[in-house]
Amino acid sequence: MPRSQNKVASHRRRKKILGQAKGYWGARSKVYTIAKGHVEKAGTHAYRHRKTKKREYRGLWVARINAAARLNGTTYSRLMNGLEKKKVAINRKVLADLAASHPQAFAEVVKFAVA
Fold first, then answer.
1. In this structure, what is the dihedral angle of CA atoms 50, 54, 59, 63, given to the nearest 10 degrees?
2. Any idea what the CATH number is for the domain that residue 38 is in?
3. How would residue 3 be classed by pLDDT, with cut points 50, 70 and 90?
4. 29 with 19: CB under 8 angstroms?
5. Contact at 8 Å (CB) between 65 and 101?
6. Per-residue pLDDT tens digits for 4-28
7. Are 99 and 65 within 8 A, CB to CB?
8. Structural domain that includes position 33
9. Is residue 5 part of a domain?
């Protein structure tokens, strides 16, 4: 009995990996055996950094809010505590955007929260 080969599926599998490796340097984008390892490694980095990206953005927002709060005569922790006591449900992303693009509106929020 002749040996069965699944040429269509194996070709598609290799083509998929080489497509994902497009743009990689040298043999990493051209040789299947090398590309396979680099695509797998890139996938682990992508998975891990989807998680860390959220942490990094939150840190950035906190830094921006703190800088703007200090310009308005208070600190980040006092501002967030005041907002929580007044039951204002505004997240850090929106606060950071307010601080950067609408300083007058942010000053009003600070005045309301701290007073």
1. 110
2. 1.10.1900.20
3. confident
4. no
5. no
6. 888 899 999 999 999 999 999 999 9
7. yes
8. 27-114
9. no
Residue 6 lies in a domain: no
Q: Cα(106)–Cα(111) distance, rounded to whole angstroms?
A: 9
Query: Residue 6's pLDDT is what?
Result: 86
pTM reported for the whole predicted model: 0.74
Q: What is the DSSP string of 1-70?
A: -PPP--HHHHHHHHHHHHHHTTT-SGGGGT-HHHHHHHHHHHHHHHHHHHHHHHHHHHHHHHHHHHHHHH
Tell me if 91 is assigned to some domain: yes
Q: Which tens digits make up the pLDDT trace of 20-79? A: 999 999 999 999 999 999 999 999 999 999 999 999 999 999 999 999 999 999 999 999
The first and second tokens of residue 20, run together, are: 């994902």
Tally Cβ neighbours within 10 Å of residue 38. 18
Domains identified in the chain, total number: 1
Residue 107: inside a domain:
yes
Residues 37, 24: contact at Cβ < 8 Å? Answer: no
